[in-house]
Amino acid sequence: MGKYFGTDGFRGEANKNLTYEHAVKIGRFLGWYYGTNQGKKAKIVIGKDTRRSSYMFEYALCTGLMASGADAYIMHVTTTPSVAYITRVDEFDCGIMISASHNPFYDNGIKLLNGNGEKMDEETILKVEDYIDGKCEVPIAGREEIGRTVDYVAGRNRYIGHLISMSKYSFKDVKVGLDVANGSAWQIAKSVFDALGAKTYVMNDAPDGYNINTDCGSTHIEHLQKFVVDNGLDVGFAYDGDADRCLAVDEKGNVITGDHILYIYGLYMKERGKLINNKVVTTVMSNFGLYKAFDLVDIEYDKTKVGDKYVYENMVETGNRIGGEQSGHIIFSKYETTGDGILTSLKLMEVMLAKEKPMSELAAPVVFYPQVLKNVRVKSKPDAQNDPDVQAAVQKVSDELGDSGRILVRESGTEPVIRVMVEADTEEICEKHVDAVIDVIKAKGHTE
Asked: How far is CA 79 from the centre of its chain?
């Protein structure tokens, strides 16, 4: 992980941690690196979400790109997966998405994608950071070498067509609720569901630059739960700010998490002989109940570190075809290189229609175990994690839980904390075991 770029791009409060000068420099470096550095003119595509600051970062990036001789193709307000898709199929040198995902409006971020529509490799990211820090120089373009901007709303339309083509079924007479979070899915999701014949009911589709993710979308799914029940809908889907994740609500108003989605579609793939390696990729934060449900239908699973980046890396290495996170980042590697909230909702619709079952019945086998997660601030994460007494305490809990639960102790990627999580039959059991491990961490003097 670099100085500025984390697992999901360069993110921070607009013009405080992430400034327009940063954006200009990122554009300057990428325009040169993929262009004159390789003896050609770079073609780079840019998308953004609905935050007020996204316009500023869009123009700043374009300024940097053009000054380095690149042509910047602007998709305007669109989703992260659409930028990834267009970067790959239209053979751009790289793609840039301006978004802070599910964060509040005053935050923003810059996500970089390689020519395959995948998250940018660490080596290139570090070169970008060196340029930001003034450790290297790149030439400025002159005369006929100066770049230009190109309106590329056609790319967004191509992506909409791609999504429509993903459905094997008509959605005629199916009543679907969509919470587009006043974000990137605003103009896209309804167009797709309408084209497929659904009776589409949309909420939070009036972005004003400030209301993205505000009391709406996948981070506030309680509003969609009520919306589905009040309107008698068959199913509902909620997206985050850049629409790379999706959570659902069944016809009874119950939340369908990313874990439920992995089970529902993983089983559907297995039943049709499509589940390569008989495996689904999860992260260590998936609920124990998901693994118990997989065991009952003989589906195997890999566990990665938290982050869709690590899920995708596993899929590339192993050939596994479906993976994701409980938060709703689901990757269907046959079709796309990143999580795609709208595609995820289409895939869930496919299972409902193919099996002729309501969402509540499809999700019923996944019974979540109670979970308790507590954070402990420590002086040194590695020292606390590797302490023999702490490890012994963790092992003791694991032995006591056996097959009836699990314990997970991991370091935060961004804070000086150790996270202790236990899943078991009751919340009381979880609390007891979490506190037992934390007590050892404190007794050994690791806390601040």
From this structure: 11
